[in-house]
């Protein structure tokens, strides 16, 4: 005897070997033996063989008119044999009974299952809804096939182009656009990104990186609400007497956060002022501008463009632009003029006259060590000559402060490589670049005098304010580093802990409140400390163990990491453009890491470029080599090199390659979220309501 039975949602047939009261031992056509519950057996028969019956019944079921079957079916619960009798004949054959069973079982939108071989008609409205859904699914599947065919043929359908970044990076894997890309990639047997590029989905490699960044980080755009305006400072601030402050920034800088001043030269005690723009005097935690700043967390920088943290009207109101007094939070540090010993520190909230905005790129070639150490200025712009004495003292002080920090660090700070500046020629009349510009890459020596003056002054302010807030018990956002041991990185936290890399007891970012949210938060805390002294912890916006501070810290850390990665990526993009625009096919470079198997990582000697190279067998870290460059991939931001010549007889001591770790992240293949191995999602069958 043979039986037809249900097992795990499927109907199988087999020969009965033995049978008990509630179950049977059945042998399948494959030879496998299974134990089947008696309740799961729906048909018993002597012939034909199960496989023959199932094949005949399946073919017959495919010819059944389900609308007609639904009409014939009883309004009450019924069995498949009853439907077969109504649909086929009074005495349906075994194959007709099995066909009715298969048809009923496979049409849940028409018939609801009520038990083994038992069914009930779905209400008419449910049937119509289900049929409409099936037709819709067929139409969508047809559309997927059409879009897929277009992609394979090298054309990108408009809906896929419009959804490109969502498909690639945050896909809805049930969306037809995503499915079309997967189907096309499978059909063409090509990587999805390559297929889309060939089909014209990506018009510009620059726009690809830019729009991807906006999609992931600024989905609502980079504009500010029109209702935002720059609030005025409510306090009647005193004018800083005797102060003539000046800033030192690049020409492209519009958010001038900091300025310096020097008083008392020749008196034996010199007071150095570090003056920080004070948006914290007008913005308040939780107000509309704060919400915007907190959402962005930082200004985003990239060659030729930036996305500011605050609206331009606010920046222009509080930036330390020359020509008029500006609100500022000032740190005044008094030094013995001869020994440079620190005698005291004071913080004031005031209006500071700004007399000059000096620019690195215009003055670095003029204001060097010789110029600053000369008794009188030797050339240069008039505004720089007028500030010769303050600049000379600040340079002398900066060298002393740096030396003191290096004693704490346990080793000197080294500036082995220059900073690189990018200038895009051809986009001056546009709000943002489009990738067609000519790029100029210039260098600025790290630790150049003007750079050293500013950096040491900012370290002085950030470490002094950080320590002061810690003493008062006022929480702040700190950067710390436990030691200079390998693998010990800089961390952010809310406690005043040492920063081994800088050689200071504590370090709270406070000197860039127009472009970093952490600095704005810390400025609010510093203002409270300046106003309330020992009771500041009670008056500060953020109290000890404030959960809001931890939330800000986490959000800032994530955003700042993302923004820095994008800046590094776009600098890499323009460096690759520079290679193309100048027809550079060979580079001199230094090996910074051995990757094994003759592969290594190398850093170009004259460009900000780290790249993987082959042919470095037997060459040590620090070896200088000439590389032949391979093809450039502007989408993956990738270029490879091969060693064609060693340029030195003996490798130089290998520099710390910690920065190469970060730069290396931009050299790998672009990661997308399209998986061509995704199984076709099974849409759940429409289930009629009970």
Keywords:
single chain, 690 residues, 5-stranded antiparallel β-sheet, 5-stranded mixed β-sheet
In summary, what is this structure?
The chain contains 21 helices and 24 strands. The protein is α+β, with helices and mostly antiparallel strands and about 700 residues long.
SSE inventory with pairings:
Elements (H helix, E strand, L loop, with lengths): L1 E6 L2 E10 L3 E6 L4 E5 L3 E5 L4 H12 L4 H7 L5 E2 H8 L6 H12 L5 E5 L2 E4 L2 H29 L5 H5 L1 H6 L6 H13 L3 H7 L6 H13 L27 E5 L8 E6 L5 E9 L10 H9 L3 E3 L2 E3 L4 H7 L6 E12 L5 E18 H4 L5 H5 L8 H5 L1 H22 L9 E7 L12 E7 L4 H24 L5 E3 L10 E3 L23 H16 L3 H4 L7 H35 L4 E11 L2 E6 L5 E5 L9 E6 L11 E6 L11 H7 L26
Parallel strand pairs: 9-15, 22-24
Antiparallel strand pairs: 1-2, 1-5, 2-3, 3-4, 6-8, 7-8, 10-11, 11-14, 12-13, 14-15, 16-17, 18-19, 20-21, 20-23, 21-22, 23-24
Helix pairs in contact: 1-4, 3-4, 5-8, 16-17
Quote the beta fraction.
15-25%
Helix content: 25-40%
How many angstroms separate the termini? 37 Å
Parts with pLDDT < 50 across at least 5 consecutive residues: 681-690
Rg to the nearest angstrom? 37 Å
By DSSP (H or I, 4+ residues per run), the number of helices equals 21
How many strands?
A: 24
Strand line-up across the major sheet: 4-3-2-1-5
Compute the average pLDDT.
89
What about the largest sheet? 5 strands, antiparallel
Task: Quickly give the structural class.
Answer: alpha+beta
Indicate the overall shape: elongated
